[in-house]
What does this fold into?
Amino acid sequence: MTAYCSDKDWLLLSRYLVGVLSPHQAAALESRLTSEAGLREALEHLTRTRSLLTACPEKKVPRNFTIKAGQTARNKAPRLFPVLRLATVVSSLLFAAVVGMRLLPMNMVGESRQMADITTMSQEFPVAENAAPPVAPKASLPEDETATTTPDARTASGAGVLTGLSPSQDIPEEATIFEADNITKRETISWGKIAWSLGIISLILAFIAVYFYLLERV
Amino acid sequence: MDENYLILEAKKGDLDAFNHLVLTYQSRVYNLAYRILGDEAAAEDTTQTTFLMAFQKFSGFRGGSFLAWILRIATNQCYDSLRYAKRHPTTPLEPSDNEDDVPETPSWMTDHSNQPEAMFDQSELDHAIQHCLNALPIEYRTVAVLVDVQGMDYEAAATVIKTPLGTIKSRLARARSRLRECLSGVWELLPNSVRLNIEGNQ
It folds into this structure.
């Protein structure tokens, strides 16, 4: 009593059973049915299966499912979820912005610009042995900025050490190089401040979201 | 009462009109839920939730077949219910004898029927079919219930579960193939009268 058919044959028989095959496909299948006993048997089983399922008795509903006015009113009452949702979304977006800003755009741009400067300078002025520590860079920095120098900025000023010039050499375009450094520092600092502000707002919103969530749960 | 009129009134928030629709379709929704979930209590809850949700989201009904729309909500509710059950599995309370041991043949499994010809009545057939349906993957089961048990055509079933027609056809073929294996034994055990009755209804 086992009828083995390919998936394609089952699909054909299944569609044949409900009469949705095209006349051409139906004729082709009927000719196969006359010659292939296995296919005939499969169709017979499928017909029985479908008959059993169709004859499946309908369950009587245990009660009426009509809705009472009180049910809809209670469920339609606005709750705190919109606030919760909004706070969550805003804090998530701000968090993503903070992470994005800290990781990707300005710092990378600044770093790549510094790297380009370093490369250019090291090509033009090879590193001298026993290089003297640079005095000019520190002197050129404004006092208020030295206090807030970021690690990136420190690396930038350290570039002067890497490219340390011998005392006998002139320092060409000195002002231009350190001016570029200062611009990068300013950009880093301002973006850093924005990122911190956004981070704090994000944290506050996250706290609001958690507060409302807990309130909702209680 | 005219269904279109009831739908229009229900859209305006008329609960009475909506309840008329509930009374018309509650049997279809309940049976669909029961066949998909395989549990009467869960089907009851799902049916109630379906109608409640339908009333609350009636503005989302853009015309067409109301039955297909309500069955779509019911199907989604069933999926949610099954997902919930999967996340929160429960342990059935197994009946045991007085010594707290589960006997090899528990009393609740004993067949008290003394008439062989009555062994396979409609209720048994119902259980056998449900047992085989439960063994199917959920996507196959849904299609089999919609098309073979509920008697919908392919297009209507595709509308209900928002699935391409080709997918419906292939799922149904696979579902029938698996059900055939499961139900082959059932057919052999059916009394002749029931067999004839089923064959007569074809």
Summary: The CA atoms of residues 16 and 26 of chain A lie 7 Å apart. Chain A touches chain B at residues 1, 5, 7, 10-11, 13-15, 18, 20, 45-67, 69, 71-72, 75-76 (CB under 8 Å).
